[in-house]
Design brief:
Elements (H helix, E strand, L loop, with lengths): L6 H4 L2 H13 L8 H13 L3 E6 L3 E8 L4 E7 L26 H18 L4 E8 L7 H7 L2 H4 L4 E8 L7 E2 L3 E4 L1 E10 L3 E2 L9 H19 L6 E10 L5 E2 L2 E10 L2 H22 L2 E8 L4 E3 L1 H15 L4 E2 L11 H7 L2 E7 L21 H15 L3
Parallel strand pairs: 3-4, 3-5, 5-16, 6-15
Antiparallel strand pairs: 1-2, 2-4, 6-16, 7-14, 8-12, 8-13, 9-11, 10-12
Helix pairs in contact: 2-4, 4-11, 7-8, 9-11
The structure holds nickel (II) ion (NI).
């Protein structure tokens, strides 16, 4: 495979590798990315960027302006996961129980490399806003940054994100318009019946039997009421009831998650879950309560920006190494909040084969340093094409 890395970026690969491994050795989780944020802010300042800290607590924004022109945002996430690292690498986590198992160390290093190169070369006209966000993993740092005025303080016409993807070869990208990652919501439901002696069920209202019917009925929502071309998943993942062999309990607690790709499907699933469960429980003489926790929306790319991102990726890796029809992932991503606020595109970049358990969120995972030059080159080519001189 011939990669067409930006020459100046290629010269930064060793430096990016050192940054990446330093960040890897010092993983920090949601809103506690103080060391990482300080490292990012220091580097950006040393490259000559205007630096802003404190947005969403530990977020860092670097602004690079070169004449008048459009403004675009480039985003990297900085946070790690609560995982005990098992890689045995010499730069493995020095923070027990925490680990960069999603490659955000690599994302941060690549965007820093691109910032350095773009500041040195200034081969663009306009403004680049480099967004280093905290708390991507479940805590919605992107949402908080947007709520705290990210795009009011730093107006951009479009915003772009990137995630490494194990299982895709180094030097490949996947880009598509429309949904690429799912919306994720969790729920907690309580079915209240009336406890009784296990041998005398007629004297009570058994919430366990009602729960069994509810769980079964919920599985008909996707298969019977959603267009087969649309995707959704309803998973009941926790079931809590009773504590004796011979006692029918008063209540059953059901917990789980729902994933979907559009707001129509998302709303429909919630509505049907409540309607079915209420009807079934009423029939059994039990009561039903549902509490929803709406989490990340679907990550959905806008058409024009997806096309532009695909072209920038093809510039680096060649057209035949850009997959324009990837199957969307049922995983979720908080860059969705930025894409809800501005048009833009989120791409996947190959991290090499996911062999040996080297998949995202795995204790054996490590970001592939061979991808650093590819990702940083993509950022540079994207800026040069969107903000032409
Ligand atoms: Ni991630």
């Amino acid at each position: 495979m011939t990669l067409n890395l930006v020459p100046g970026v290629e010269a930064l690969v060793d430096e990016m590798t050192a940054w990446r491994r330093d960040i890897h050795a010092h993983p920090e989780t949601a809103y506690e990315e103080t060391r990482t944020a300080a490292l990012v802010a220091d580097k950006l300042a040393s490259f000559g960027l205007e630096v802003h800290t404190g947005l969403a607590k530990t977020g860092v924004v670097g602004v690079l302006k070169n004449g008048d022109g459009p403004a675009i945002g480039l985003r990297a996430d900085m946070d790690a996961l609560f995982i005990d690292e098992k890689t045995g690498l010499d730069y493995a986590s020095t923070h027990p129980g925490k680990m960069h198992a999603c490659g955000h160390d690599g994302h941060t290093a690549m965007l820093l490399g691109a910032a350095k190169h773009l500041s040195d070369e200034r081969n663009f006209k306009g403004t680049v806003v480099f967004v280093f966000q905290p708390a991507e993993e479940g805590e919605g740092g992107a949402k908080v940054m947007v709520e705290e005025g990210l795009f009011d303080k730093f107006p951009v016409d479009a915003v772009y994100g990137l995630h490494n993807w194990p299982g895709m070869d180094i030097g490949t990208f996947a880009v598509k318009a429309g949904p690429i990652m799912a919306a994720y919501d969790s729920f907690e439901a309580r079915i209240t019946g009336h406890g009784a002696h296990g041998g005398m069920p007629h004297l009570g209202v058994d919430p366990v039997v009602a729960a069994a019917h509810v769980i079964g009925a919920w599985q008909s929502i996707v298969s019977r009421t959603i267009n087969p071309q649309d995707a959704a998943v309803i998973s009941v993942t926790q079931l809590e009831a009773g504590d004796a062999f011979n006692v029918i309990p008063d209540t059953v607690l059901l917990k789980g998650a729902v994933r979907s790709f559009t707001s129509e499907v998302r709303d429909h699933v919630w509505k049907r879950m409540a309607e079915l469960a209420e009807g079934i429980c009423q029939g059994f003489g039990a009561e039903f309560e549902l509490s929803l926790h709406r989490s990340y929306p679907a990550t959905s790319n806008s058409d024009t920006e997806a096309g532009l991102a695909a072209m920038a990726a093809a510039d680096v890796v060649g057209h035949h190494n850009v997959d324009h029809h990837p199957t969307p992932s049922m995983g979720a991503e908080d860059f969705a909040y930025m894409l809800n606020a501005r048009p833009g595109c989120y791409v996947w970049m190959g991290n090499g084969p996911g062999e040996g358990g080297c998949l995202l969120h795995n204790p054996h995972y490590d970001f592939n340093d061979r991808a650093l030059g590819v990702g940083a080159s993509y950022w540079v080519r994207l800026v040069e094409s969107l903000l032409p001189v």
